[in-house]
Amino acid sequence: MSSQSSGSKWLAGVLVVAIVGLGGVFLYREKQAHDAAQPPQPVAAASSALPSASVHDAALPQHPINPASSSTASLPALDQSDDEIMAGLLALTSDGALKTLLRPDAIVSRMVSTIDALPKQTIGMNILPMRTPTGRFQVQSDDGMFVESKKNLERYDTYMYVADHVNPKAAAAWYKRNYPLFQAAYRDLGTNGYFNDRLIEVIDHLLAAPEPRGSLQLLPEKVGYVYANPAYEQLAVGQTFMIRVGADNEAKLKAKLRGLREAIVADAPQGAK
Question: Looking at the domain assignment, is residue 20 inside a domain?
Fold first, then answer.
């Protein structure tokens, strides 16, 4: 947790993984300085062709997308999809706030790489689909202890505004229509898995994030700060983000994520788990 920041948050319909980027449309995390020294994770190269909507991996998906909800017929190739994806995402919100946050290139690949990384311990800044909050991380003294300054929450205002204006049902519908692009980007990561299964897994991971009451004590290190409670310091990127945005914002994001999850699995094919 230093003045250096990285993050992400998304699942647009988050992805938001509210996130987010939800529709998973966004994520953010203050990273410790020594994390920044680690080699960046590459954004998966975009495929020029989409997999057939009727072809799945050898292992049957637990949360398959209804074939009627997605089609490759009118979708561009992954490496040519940015304009259409950007337009679709902006249509999910009522104004241009999302456009000020979203990176315009390799959007789907960035989303998929970010979502896949949320349950992990580190995330490369170069894969994030959204720009990180500006300003420096601030601490304050509270009864002789260092705690996060409440001023930090102001840095999330635009991200929370976007999350508040995303309708989970509309985001899920957009995601399903474009699902072949997400699956293609997931395979570009070198996996034979089914992306929607990973998405549901990540949403459940975020929903399981701790909900601490009161301010969390911070301990100064040579560079930056760490949580005094080692259980919080060992959380994965996604759950760390959830507690960093504050209790009120965490509750709002979890409500969005629950709505998104429900909408995604609502029309699963018969026999699906």
Answer: yes
